[in-house]
Task: inverse folding
């Protein structure tokens, strides 16, 4: 018999993964930062990464958020088509966010785009952003990825002509160059190629969830190009401008070639939980 | 490269000696201010209104802190720097109005070298290091303009040896970020 998924399970699971994502970093990200520290030769660059590693340690020990920008909250929900959900899943996720905002606590970041009035609890119209995917399982997997504005603001999208694919690399490098020290490098670069205007952006964001070290030859070459720019940690110069590059592709219209570049700061925060299933 | 330990309010001589690349630690008071607070400071000057805080010799911290309200008042949870460049355009005007001596933030600022000449310095704290920054904040003295919301309000923070801060832009028109950017542009043109 599959485990029963109820409203309260989801609320407390959301609070738990938010706590984990906000106060710790995935191991692969920490490993990449440690390697970067060893690679740097300038004192200033080394000290920036040392501060980052020390900060991660303090946040973990004291169970406080790594960064005061606890982001807008984005959820990726993988819904098993055989899972039984007899309640409003979205309500449960929203309640988890409201509780976590008080208990961790998180900075209230959700504001009306024009009046700029703050809702105070990180929920609002369309926020948290919840993306659903359906699979064949009997469980629900919820991943949370809080996204800070410093890096998000440096992201870019372009609709290329189908014959311009040789310009993609320049577009990616221009975006990183233009961002300089603003998005808190060393960054992780998520790239979406294909789909549509919005699909490319979603692919780019999704790419940020990949394991830092898991890169293709093409991704490694792009990483090398980016790091040759010498922007370095916090834009103060150095060998590590990015820790990783991840590309996701989708088929697109024969007349278009959308490319999105989503910039992620070093604090590539995300955590997951699986509810239900046979386990 | 020199290392300085300075106390607020900062005097002109304190900042004139700082050169880009030097390390600075600050003790005393820092005022958080970012987008909305900057806009209000400029608005109040236009309306000839007096600010509820004194920016003479002040340090402005580009930060939207995460605070917790307890029975005894406010405490800092996490308070790292925000992207300073968003405040670039408003900074020359702010420096005409108030004798702010240092800005603390991350990522550098655009086109402020002239406005800061002989007046102020830009000090960079490692971005994202909010837990580390919170360790150097001893007290929350006051909060102004809470109506702007927690991140945008002006928080008066008492700090001790806040740093290490890298002098990114000094008061002699040197800008480390700009130098790195120039080299990056050169490196970009070398990529096949």
Result:
């Amino acid at each position: 018999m599959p485990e029963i998924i109820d409203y309260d399970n989801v609320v407390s699971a959301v609070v738990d993964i938010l706590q984990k994502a906000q106060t710790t970093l995935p191991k692969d990200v920490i490993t990449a930062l440690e390697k970067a520290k060893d690679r740097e030769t300038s004192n200033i660059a080394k000290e920036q990464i040392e501060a980052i590693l020390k900060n991660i340690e303090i946040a973990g020990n004291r169970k406080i958020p790594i960064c005061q920008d606890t982001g807008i909250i984005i959820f990726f929900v993988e819904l098993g088509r055989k899972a039984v959900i007899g309640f409003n899943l979205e309500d449960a996720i929203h309640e988890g966010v409201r509780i976590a905002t008080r208990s961790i606590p998180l900075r209230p970041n959700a504001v009306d785009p024009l009046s700029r009035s703050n809702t105070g609890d990180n929920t609002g119209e369309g926020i948290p952003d919840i993306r659903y995917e359906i699979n064949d399982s009997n469980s629900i997997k919820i991943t949370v990825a809080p996204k800070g504005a410093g890096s998000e603001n440096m992201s870019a999208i372009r609709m290329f002509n189908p014959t311009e694919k040789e310009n993609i690399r320049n577009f990616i490098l221009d975006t990183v160059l233009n961002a300089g020290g603003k998005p808190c490098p060393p960054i992780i670069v998520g790239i979406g190629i294909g789909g549509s205007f919005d699909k490319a952006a979603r692919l780019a964001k999704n790419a940020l969830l990949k394991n830092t070290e898991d890169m293709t030859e093409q991704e490694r070459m792009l990483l090398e190009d980016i790091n040759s720019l010498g922007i370095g940690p916090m834009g103060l110069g150095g060998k590590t401008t990015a820790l990783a590059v991840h590309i996701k592709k989708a088929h697109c219209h024969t007349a278009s070639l959308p490319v999105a570049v989503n910039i992620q700061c070093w604090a590539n925060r995300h955590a997951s939980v699986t509810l239900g299933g046979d386990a | 490269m020199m290392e300085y330990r300075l106390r607020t309010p900062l005097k002109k001589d304190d900042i004139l000696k700082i050169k880009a690349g030097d390390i600075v630690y600050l003790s005393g008071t820092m005022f958080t201010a970012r987008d909305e607070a900057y806009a209000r400071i400029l608005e109040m000057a236009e309306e000839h209104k007096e600010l509820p805080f004194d920016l003479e010799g002040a340090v402005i911290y580009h930060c939207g802190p995460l605070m917790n309200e307890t029975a005894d008042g406010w405490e800092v949870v996490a308070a790292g720097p925000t992207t300073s460049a968003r405040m670039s355009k408003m900074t020359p005007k702010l420096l005409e109005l108030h004798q702010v001596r240092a800005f603390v933030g991350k990522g550098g600022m655009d086109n402020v070298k002239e406005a800061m000449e002989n007046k102020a310095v830009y000090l960079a704290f490692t971005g994202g290091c909010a837990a580390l920054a919170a360790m150097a904040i001893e007290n929350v003295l006051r909060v102004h303009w809470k109506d702007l919301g927690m991140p945008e309000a002006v928080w008066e923070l008492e700090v001790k040896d806040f740093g290490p801060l890298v002098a990114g832009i000094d008061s002699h028109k040197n800008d480390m970020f700009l130098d790195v950017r120039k080299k990056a542009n050169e490196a970009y043109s070398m990529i096949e």
Summary: Chain B has a mean pLDDT of 97. Residues 3-190 of chain B form a domain with the fumarase fold (CATH 3.20.130.10).
